[in-house]
Design brief:
Strand order of the largest sheet: 17-24-23-20-21
Number of strands: 24
Radius of gyration: 22 Å
Shape: globular
Largest sheet: 5 strands, antiparallel
Oligomer: single chain
Number of helices: 0
Strand content: over 45%
Order of helices and strands: EEEEEEEEEEEEEEEEEEEEEEEE
Amino acid sequence: ACAYVSAPGNNVSDVELWKSDGTTSGTVLVKDINTGNDGSYPIDFTDISGTLYFTAFNNVSGRELWKTDGSSNGTSLVKEIMAGNVGGFSTAAQYAYNTWIFSVPFNIGNDFYFTANDYATVPNGVSYENNVELWKSDGTTNGTSKVLDIYPSTTIGSYPYYFTNALGKIFFTAVNDVNGRELWVFDVPLSVNELSNEVKFDVYPNPSNSKINVIYQCSNSNEVAEAIALTDLSGRTINALKLKEKSSAFKKTIDISALSPGIYFVKLISNKTTVVKKIVKD
């Protein structure tokens, strides 16, 4: 186990990502993200399914979303959200650029959702614009994209805020040029990923306030279930079960009576795919 920190090297302004196992020899620089004497100043560390995400700055991409598995080769830019050296986690203010916070208010299946900026004017002391909107990512470059331009403009954003899950949906506020700042809703899909005709995956009763039953059946003997997991909207694993005997058919019961009311996900992992279904705890 290691702890990750932002710390300077020999130069006090060269703040980079380090890791430590609590020993001198086990305390090392993970990666020099902003090469040279200036640091990348990594911040907003978020663990999602065992991968550490954060934002960092360099002179090529600006402040963007990065991920790491703890190794130098495994530390990489997820996507350049704003082209150029400003970055998707910076916003223009009157006289300077400010850092935009990276946070994950909810997950759906393998995707985590956040707000980011893909356009910023140059601070000029008079006026400025930013296009902050809702984005999602599965941790890959191709799987990172804007969800919707709520404010229909390439230069002005809707600034989504105050994400709350209730009634099987995600509620938040956002602004556009027609309505101003109003309440918006994001309907969480009942199923993420498509199943083949050979597979039956069901979770019931749904909604439930005590227990749920998970049923899996597959007519193709080459596809077998390997594990199931129960997660919350933030992606945190609440209950995980690795199947001792990989099977093409099983029924499992999961006790959810101790959980707070809200939205949760049951994830089925087979040797061929991962399927996620939403459940609602009353």
